[in-house]
Amino acid sequence: MLNFLAWYFLSTLLGLLAFPLTCRLFPALADRGYSLARTVGLLIWAYAFWMLASLGVAQNDVGGILMGLLPLGGLSFWALRSNKQKAENNQEIPNSQSPIINSQLPITTWLKANWRTVAVVEILFLTAFGLMAFVRANNPEIVGTEKPMELAFINAILRSPSFPPNDPWLSGYSISYYHFGYIMAAMLAKLTATPGSVAFNLMLSLVFALAAAGAYGIVYNLLAAHAKHDHQSPITNYQLPASPRAPLALPLLAPLFLLLVSNLEGFLQVLHTRGLFWPKNPGAFNFWTWLNIKDLNTAPAGTGWVPTGHWWWWRASRVIMDTDLRGVVSDLSPIDEFPFFSFLLGDLHPHVLAIPFGLLAVGVALNLFFQREKPSLHIFGLPLHLRKMDFAFAALVLGGLAFLNTWDILPYAALIVLAYTLARVSGQGWGRERLEDLFGFGLPLGLLSILLYLPFYLGFSSQAGGPLPNLVYATRGAHLWVMFGTLFVPLLAWLTVQLRRQKPKLALALSLTLGLVLLLWALSWLMAWIATYVRPDVAQAEMLAQGASSFGVFFKDATIRRLAHLGSLLTLIALLVPSLALIFANNHPAQDDDEASETAPRPPSTVFVLLLISLAALLILAPEFVYLRDQFGTRMNTVFKFYYQAWILLSLAAAFGAAALLRSLRGPADWAWRVGLSLVFILGLAYPVLSLPNKTENFEPFLGRTLDGAAHLDQENPDDAAAIRFLQDIPLGVIAEASIAGGSYTHYGRISTHTGLPTVLGWPGHEGQWRGSYEPQGTRLTDIETLYTTSNWLEASGIIQRYGIRYVVVGSLEKNTYHVREEKFQQFLKLIFQEGETAVYQVP
Questions:
Q1: Which range (94-108, 264-278, 611-625) has the least confidence?
Q2: How many CB atoms lie within 10 A of CB 177?
């Protein structure tokens, strides 16, 4: 509990420290970035500390971490002074009924006028932080899936004296993975004296809370600006609009849709468990075999309502089934996680750590979209309508996303650049100049985002390669609706209302959408045609694997498959066409640039939401035709990463759309929508309601409630647990412990994971993925085996010297893995720890 309170108060102080800066960074937002302040503070603090440590200016200790706070404090002090000076030069009386107070007013005045907004954000943050910490306390074990890897990173960073931090599973190397989020976790842990195994669960809870506050703030700002537009009140940086107070309750739909609402697998699991729609007549139509989701396509074992079985909820992350032309389901079908599944599973993986910072990028895009600036920045001779600080901060956020989870930089960079471009369209209309805006802003922004994080890229290697064609695996419409149906319903309802109200011309949007689909389809086959010349052996093998006798037959069968699975494409077209049509219809140029920059209304919030929908639909569409090459050789990870980002964007849009309809519909339409939205929540919340008791042992854990993810070790292997506690307090050094090929997702690497001491080799498969090659591992796997099994001390000593091994662990895992010849260690090394079957030897 003390650790929980320490993390809460530290994050709150960090938000308060950053708030003066967010007021300067987000002047066009109703909450002036308050809901994002903690995330902003954490990003700038972590960046400053990481850069100072990487340059050797600071050490990885409490002093260095505190030094990293100085840039944040300095920037906030500058922002506070700057805001005060401008407020003195621009005396205005604040309107306490207005959700947006002039960006030049003193912060204290804004806080007094918007204390309700502040209170809601604070209550939401504390509630979300506490609830997720409670969930983790009932299921804290850091075992299975990727959790040991993530804990290993945190502990390795805690133990590394300088940066780049040591790779815990490949001694002599630094981490080659996007690990910014683990640096943040280690910073908070070190400053609050929190053990790594507790910091793991607190960081997951903190990410959940930051995401809840950030999502709330984005939709709050959208609704506030929407209310002003409805009242035909210009919103600029220079005058106070007269409008009703922004809604405080409706934006809560945003964290609800983002973090709790889930896909439809949970509700389907209830129907399947009950045996509904399972035909008694073997020849009758079988809904479940038609749906063909793994484990739901077999006859139910029971007749109850509540799903049973260990980890039944795992199936929700595997509802997209890829079937080849022979009808065989791929063993590497796509991963389709969504946020609640991630927090239920408890993996502190990069795609989870990046959620609050992805929302921060959305906030940056929204501020640029709303903000009116005269050309104040020139890059390569091109005038940009934004401030220097806007440009620098956008680059800092995008670069941080790449460091957090490299996959994220593409969608959020596109969002920021397109939001800026659409803002210019509203001021000057469409034309060649918009391409100049697009590339004149986008290219320098991308370059600066890389330069700001250059030390990371210099030591980074990856398995990711270029694009490959997806010729066969088309997502079924039914599977796509199981995945996104709870978001599609409010989105399509809102789009329908918008189409009826505005009646835009659909022809251009339809042509562009169909043209894009055909272009992607043609591009995939062009890539395949080129492959027949570049790698004819690979192309021939792929064709034969699909059961085709010739490339002509292959093309015909693949095309038939694509046409048979048009449901997903039609759904995406139904989202893209109205979104694009409404974007085109909602952007009209002002009379001149001065008018656009000072007196013209900002583009309505609906246009930004339409941009979110369009970008998300494109993220879902892309893996239908292309995917990024990795060691798995399938679209599994591309679907995983793209769908995850699509969920985040669609959830924000769905929350806004649902709230807008609740505010605008009247009469029978209003009641129909409330009923429909209630059904969406029943379907979408069935999964969290049923899965949480299953995952947490009905909130009565066997070991009791604790946030210590390593507490289970004392029950499972008390000898190893005692050795780990001993090794956590000894000087840094390379350790030797058992490792085997295929050891990923097992107990191998357990000592390095829990101590942060680098081991010779941990999980070989993961190291190969992180570095894109197994070459750095060399002969380590066989050398470790030889170290334990040889009776020749000279041979063992040579291995110890080769890898600089300081500690040798001999426990039950080593003895069960190898035929250990422990006598040589007993004779030539110093025994520094012994507990039961586990011994630790130190090299003199």
A1: 94-108
A2: 20
Tokens 């005045």 belong to residue:
109
CA 758 to CA 735: how far, in whole Å?
A: 6
- The answer to whether 366 touches 653, Cβ cutoff 8 Å, is no
The stretch 199-207 carries a mean pLDDT of: 97
Q: Is 236 helix (H, G, I), strand (E, B) or coil?
A: coil
> What is the distance between the alpha carbons of residues 291 and 298, in angstroms, rounded to a whole number?
11
More confident residue, 51 or 465: 51
Distance CA 617, CA 654 (A): 13
| DSSP type of residue 335 | P
33-90 residue pLDDT tens = 999 999 999 999 999 999 999 999 999 999 999 999 999 999 999 988 877 666 556 5
Q: Is 805 helix (H, G, I), strand (E, B) or coil?
A: strand
For residue 202, pLDDT over 50 is answered with: yes
End-to-end Cα, the chain, rounded Å: 41
Looking at residue 545, its pLDDT comes to: 81
What is the C-alpha separation between 223 and 229, in angstroms, rounded? 10
pLDDT at 327: 84
Q: What's 551-611 look like in SS3?
A: HHHHHHHHHHHHHHCHHHHHHHHHHHHHHHHHHHHCCCCCCCHHHHHHCCCCCCHHHHHHH
Output 603 or 654, whichever has higher pLDDT: 654
Tokens 């029943």 belong to residue:
682
Q: Report the distance separating Cα 642 and Cα 639, nearest Å.
A: 5
Token output for 768: 């190969």
832, containing H or E segment: strand 830-835
Average pLDDT, the chain: 88
Q: Which residues contact 346 (CB under 8 A, 6 or more apart)?
A: 136, 139, 147, 201, 204
Residue 1 confidence class, pLDDT cut points 50, 70, 90: confident
Phi and psi, residue 383, nearest 5°: -80, 135
The label of the residue with tokens 């340059």 reads 55
d(CA 114, CA 516): 45
Q: How confident is the model at residue 108 (pLDDT cuts 50, 70, 90)?
A: confident
- Distance (Å, whole) CA 558 – CA 580: 29
Cβ(348)–Cβ(198) below 8 Å: no
* C-alpha Rg value of the chain to the nearest Å: 28
Which pair of structure tokens corresponds to residue 684? 């979408």
Q: 10 Å Cβ neighbour count for 307?
A: 23
Phi then psi for residue 701, to 5 deg, are -65, 145
- Angle CA(313)–CA(266)–CA(694) in degrees, nearest 5? 40
